[in-house]
Amino acid sequence: MGFFSRLITLFGLVLLGHAGFSAHEHTVLSSNARLTASPALPLDIVIEALVSLVIISLGLVLGAEKLKPVSWSVWAGQIEKEGGARNPYRRLEERYSFWDIRAKRKEFADWIRNQDVPAK
Q: Hey, what's the signal peptide range on this chain (predicted)?
């Protein structure tokens, strides 16, 4: 996360904290005054809380890592190009009780190629 995105996120958190403190103070003052009206939050506190959430979201999005591809085949292709080091299923594929599917496919393809083609 870059410095700029952290600064934006920190500013949003300060605003959110201020909105929370303002809401608490408004609730305390409304309960002490014993108003008969419902103690709804003023519009400025609600707007401050919403704006702070947008600013926090913006800071987090700016500081996020590069997104991974959505398509499974693209993601798997990238892992294959890199040699499979980042493969999250590598432990499962290396288990002894599992078949090596790629080797079996290659054996099958070789077997099909080596079959005698019957003459018509």
A: 1-19
